[in-house]
TrEMBL record:
Catalytic activity: (1S,2R)-1-C-(indol-3-yl)glycerol 3-phosphate + L-serine = D-glyceraldehyde 3-phosphate + L-tryptophan + H2O
InterPro entries: Trp_synth_b_CS, Trp_synth_beta, Trp_synth_beta/beta-like, TrpB-like_PALP, TrpB-like_PALP_sf
Family: Belongs to the TrpB family.
Cofactor: pyridoxal 5'-phosphate
SUPFAM superfamilies: Tryptophan synthase beta subunit-like PLP-dependent enzymes
Function: The beta subunit is responsible for the synthesis of L-tryptophan from indole and L-serine.
Name of this chain's protein: Tryptophan synthase beta chain
Organism in which the protein naturally occurs: Aureibaculum flavum
Pathway: Amino-acid biosynthesis; L-tryptophan biosynthesis; L-tryptophan from chorismate: step 5/5
Example GO molecular function: tryptophan synthase activity
Length: 393
């Protein structure tokens, strides 16, 4: 079984590029060039150097001793929370801004929901002196004021999406419209392992530095490269894709994906796409998607903004359908409890997204000598208000 993308841009039956005709030249230019550009020694040199000196890689692989004792297994945390800007998203935006430069682009657009991807994009645009336009739903602008301020400080223009529900989906539509109108000078930085081919594969490759490092770091710690399990939370699926990438075809490594169950999988207020989703098209690719019987996309819900997405990247849809990955979910309450637990046991306050991945230890029993690597996708600073309100701190 092949778990990587094929020549046509598919992972099994999922993926592809379902885009308006007018967008075809832009996406095709990227498709024809992305692998070639990424293989250039100059590109790799600049990318690796920025990952080291700007992002702060390699991120540590930390043996969480007290957490391991509590659950009677060996838990390692891959510390993406220590990256510049506080999460894994910067790995992808650094890669894509270098790609945009190589393709001769001078203007960057992005869409953002909670603002995390917008901040990571505005950051690399400042770094490279490129114009940056971020589309964001009017409702999201109101509820994510600190991230809007960050983007502005970094020199980006934040344009409100005023149509529809005025959230992420509408911001995405605005970004696509912009790209159609500016095909020559503009690159669209997508923030997760989603979108039309080649985006899911390109984002996965930029994030694959995560599993590349896990291999040699685990070898140093344990004398072997492969853990028994790799675990990550899934919104669109970029931190997960990067965490799994170099283990996809290692049969001894089991893969666990953790989705947000919100108020409960059957509550009508969740984002558990693999359970509730059906095949459909979102954001330019065929994948699993939460939708009504007549194909309207269902509004997802999760306490964590980064997991509040109605679809999942096509690679993950394939991993789910083939049974290569075990899909689990955690509710708001379970995730919050695990976030507090990690804070108290290890002195690490995780992003609420990452707390979902940690919640599996209450649900699944691991063996004493199992090595379980969990992607700690981000830090909890951005979530402090949510933690405060939830725990009445
Ligand atoms: C955005 C985000 C996620 C979810 O995005 P993926 O593409 O699924 O990785 C998870 N964790 C953090 C900290 C995020 O900022």
């Amino acid at each position: 079984m092949n778990y990587n993308v094929n020549e046509k841009g598919y992972y099994g039956v999922f993926g592809g590029a379902y885009i308006p005709e007018m967008l075809y030249p832009n996406v095709e230019e990227l498709r024809q060039n992305y692998l070639k550009v990424m293989a250039e020694p100059d590109f790799q040199k600049e990318f690796q150097q920025l990952l080291r000196d700007y992002v702060g890689r390699p991120s540590p692989l930390y043996f969480a001793k007290r957490l391991s004792e509590k659950y009677n297994t060996k838990i390692y945390l891959k510390r993406e929370d220590l990256n510049h800007t506080g999460a894994h998203k910067i790995n992808n935006t650094v890669g894509q801004i270098l790609m945009a430069k190589r393709l001769g682009k001078s203007r960057i657009i992005a869409e953002t929901g909670a603002g995390q991807h917008g901040v990571a994009t505005a950051t690399v645009c400042a770094l490279m002196g490129m114009e940056c336009i971020v589309y964001m739903g009017e409702i999201d602008i109101a509820r994510q004021a600190p991230n809007v301020a960050r983007m502005k400080m970094l020199g980006a223009t934040v344009i409100p999406a005023l149509s529809g529900s005025r959230t992420l989906k509408d911001a995405t539509n605005e970004a696509i419209r912009d790209w159609i109108n500016n095909p020559v000078n503009t690159h669209y930085i997508i923030g997760s392992a989603i979108g039309p081919h080649p985006y899911p594969d390109m984002v996965t490759r930029f994030q694959s530095i995560i599993s590349e490092e896990i291999k040699w770091q685990l070898k140093e710690h344990e004398g072997r490269e492969n853990p028994d399990y790799v675990v990550a939370c899934i919104g669109g699926g970029s931190n997960a894709a990067g965490t799994y990438y170099h283990f996809l075809h290692e049969e001894s490594v089991k893969i666990i994906a953790v989705e947000a169950a919100g108020l409960g999988v059957d509550s009508g207020e969740s984002a558990a796409t693999s359970i509730l989703g059906k095949e459909g098209i979102i954001h330019g690719c065929k994948t699993l998607l939460m939708q009504t019987n007549d194909g309207q996309i269902t509004e997802p819900y999760s306490i964590s903004a980064g997991l509040d997405y109605p679809g999942v990247g096509p690679m993950h849809a394939h991993l789910c359908k083939t049974g290569r990955a075990e899909f689990m979910s955690a509710t708001d309450d379970e995730a919050m409890k695990s976030g507090l637990e990690l804070s108290k046991l290890e002195g690490i306050i995780p992003a609420i997204e990452s707390s979902h991945a940690l919640a599996i230890f209450e649900k699944k029993k691991f063996k004493e000598d199992d090595i379980v690597v969990v992607s700690l996708s981000g830090r909890g600073d951005k979530d402090l208000d949510t933690y405060i309100n939830y725990f009445k701190l």
